[in-house]
Amino acid sequence: MKFDNGSVRRQDRLMDEERAYEILKQGEYGVLSMCTPDKSGAYGIPLSYVWDRGNSIYIHCAPVGRKLDCIDACASVSFCVVGRTRVIPSQFTTAYESVVLRCTAHHSLHEAERMSALSLFLGKYCPDHKMIGVDYAAKSFHRTEIIRLDIEEISAKTKNKF
């Protein structure tokens, strides 16, 4: 995983690496963007996610569907997490923070990794109900697929007027 803002066009709007990781940790959702299987277009979808605080993002879905079809056709994906935003009407602009990840997607993971990812989801989204969530995850395990996005590169940008 490499943090690299070198390709960001607006070099005056670079976000530092520490803030980018804060956004990855705290973000409520991200947008996964993929190529369609027939290469006729793109498919982007907002999803809840967890970052393992290392090199991977995990998302969950049904065991069959469009996301998996897209990943099977092309495992190179983009994942974007938006931090704070604020429209500033009087200045005809928006203050924003965004982190963009270039990733390789994998699914059909080992059972232990899938359950570990579900535990990360429970810790992030429902920490006060984690024990009940573990039972729920076990009962739903057969109908839940986990996708791991291995982060290859991170870039981050801000127009910070907060």
Structure description:
There is one protein chain. It contains four helices and eight strands. The longest helix is centred in the C-terminal third of the chain and has 15 residues, at 111-125. The model has no long low-confidence stretch (mean pLDDT 93). The protein has helices at residues 17-26, 66-73, 111-125, 130-140, and strands at residues 2-3, 30-35, 42-47, 50-51, 56-61, 76-88, 93-106, 145-159. Strands 1, 2, 3, 4, 5, 6, 7 and 8 form an eight-stranded mixed β-sheet that branches.
Give the N-terminus to C-terminus distance in angstroms. 29 Å
Helix proportion of residues, in percent?
A: 25-40%
The count of β-strands is 8
Mean pLDDT: 93
Rg to the nearest angstrom?
17 Å
Specify the overall morphology: globular
Elements, N to C (H/E): EHEEEEHEEHHE
Largest sheet: 8 strands, mixed
Outline the low-pLDDT stretches.
Answer: none
Q: Bin the strand percentage.
A: 35-45%
- Output the structural class: alpha+beta
Number of helices: 4
What would the keywords be for this entry?
alpha+beta, eight-stranded mixed sheet, 4 helices, 40% strand
Explain the layout of strands and helices.
Blueprint: E1 2-3, H1 17-26, E2 30-35, E3 42-47, E4 50-51, E5 56-61, H2 66-73, E6 76-88, E7 93-106, H3 111-125, H4 130-140, E8 145-159
Parallel strand pairs: 1-8
Antiparallel strand pairs: 2-3, 2-6, 4-5, 5-8, 6-7, 7-8
